[in-house]
Amino acid sequence: MSRTDEILARLSQLHPKLIDLSLDRMLPLLERLGNPQDHLPPTIHVAGTNAKGSTIAYLRAFLEAAGKRVHVYNSPHLVRFNERIRLAGKLVQTEPLNAALEEVERLNGGDPITFFEVTTVAAFKLFAEKPGDYLLLETGMGGTFDTTNVVRHPLGTIITPIDYDHQAFLGNTLGEIASSKAGILKRGAKAVMGLQQDVARHVLERAAARLGVRPVWQGEDFHGSAQDGRLVFQDEDGLLDLPPPALLGAHQFENAALAIAAVRHFALPVDEAALAEGLRRVSWPARMQPLRTGVLRALLPDSHELWLDGGHNAHGVAALARSIAAMPQKPLVLIMGMMNTRQPEDILAPFQDLQPVSVMTLTIPGETNARDAEEIAGRARAQGFPAAAKSDLREALIEASKVEGARVLICGSLYLAGDVLAQNGTLPD
């Protein structure tokens, strides 16, 4: 176990619950650190159910193409905890990360605090100490009581599409979930809204009105779509004809448009050339990611395709299935694993019309809350899928190699995606 892992293991024992939404525990700790959250670069705060990470990836690419130093906070990580914290464009180095975690641990003095809270405090310390031009800050869950929601005066806020997820913590109705996400809106900060269902939009409109915020809305105030292989974006300031995003999938045109709208609405110093360059260079691992080389890829013939996606809720998996459906037809093999907070029927349903020739299920290694492969396979068979449990990725891929000219898709969980990248030797950077 690395020193970082040892520190993180200690921090994970400070609270009996993994998730306990509140700001009461971390605010005193931030105070002991000198309130680093009040000394950050101009911050763009992003909440929503899906597309948070992709939207931040586009914003980072645009700003870096314009020569700006960009801090980023994302979660969860795929392979290494360092992936959660990017300082001026680079993943945090292990030595300063360990120093920040241990300083926060010392100042906390053993008080109860969740893992996400204490590590977010360490991230704020690092962001405040390292010079940067912007901070792109992703919520962990919800908004109102999310650990990141201590930045009082963000430059702007973005709420990506809202759907059902984490109901045990955010509420059982779409309105309750939207109300939680709306908690990141701040008086005096501009806001950009992704495509929303009517119930969610109504809640967001009321929350914004209470704060005197007038958001711009995707599908109404700005539009972005694929036209002749290009991304065409339009808002009240005019039309942009841009290259297609490097991230694959039809939904990525919408995600890119949301980020472009934020650039224009927040008046970020990004010109059209930087937008075009950012679209070409954007990267976001485990989102419709083709694996063309690596240890696991070598188990398949050259005639096969291998794809990886971390989509883990119904909305995200539906977008994934639409992307696969838009590709030239090939025999589809699904390799799936998921956490026990996910229902196999929800993850499998979008693939029903694609008629996969095989569904192979896995128990995600090293995850105590992973759903059992045999259970997933049984529930898949009950839906009419040709499903079987496998002991590990290698067994599943060797079996997939026997399907002539197959398109192999590994999906269902970001935790599984991280394990795939680690085993394949494809580490995010």
Automatic annotation (TrEMBL):
Catalytic activity: 10-formyltetrahydrofolyl-(gamma-L-Glu)(n) + L-glutamate + ATP = 10-formyltetrahydrofolyl-(gamma-L-Glu)(n+1) + ADP + phosphate + H(+); (6S)-5,6,7,8-tetrahydrofolyl-(gamma-L-Glu)(n) + L-glutamate + ATP = (6S)-5,6,7,8-tetrahydrofolyl-(gamma-L-Glu)(n+1) + ADP + phosphate + H(+); (6R)-5,10-methylenetetrahydrofolyl-(gamma-L-Glu)(n) + L-glutamate + ATP = (6R)-5,10-methylenetetrahydrofolyl-(gamma-L-Glu)(n+1) + ADP + phosphate + H(+); 7,8-dihydropteroate + L-glutamate + ATP = 7,8-dihydrofolate + ADP + phosphate + H(+)
InterPro entries: Folylpolyglutamate_synth, Folylpolyglutamate_synth_CS, Mur-like_cat_sf, Mur_ligase_C, Mur_ligase_C_dom_sf
EC number: 6.3.2.12, 6.3.2.17
Domain Mur ligase C-terminal: 308-413
Pathway involvement of the protein, from the record: Cofactor biosynthesis; tetrahydrofolylpolyglutamate biosynthesis; Cofactor biosynthesis; tetrahydrofolate biosynthesis; 7,8-dihydrofolate from 2-amino-4-hydroxy-6-hydroxymethyl-7,8-dihydropteridine diphosphate and 4-aminobenzoate: step 2/2
Keyword Chloroplast in annotation: no
Keyword Nucleus tagged: no
Record key words, sorted: ATP-binding, Folate biosynthesis, Ligase, Magnesium, Metal-binding, Nucleotide-binding
Homology family: Belongs to the folylpolyglutamate synthase family.
Function text: Functions in two distinct reactions of the de novo folate biosynthetic pathway. Catalyzes the addition of a glutamate residue to dihydropteroate (7,8-dihydropteroate or H2Pte) to form dihydrofolate (7,8-dihydrofolate monoglutamate or H2Pte-Glu). Also catalyzes successive additions of L-glutamate to tetrahydrofolate or 10-formyltetrahydrofolate or 5,10-methylenetetrahydrofolate, leading to folylpolyglutamate derivatives.
Protein name: Dihydrofolate synthase/folylpolyglutamate synthase
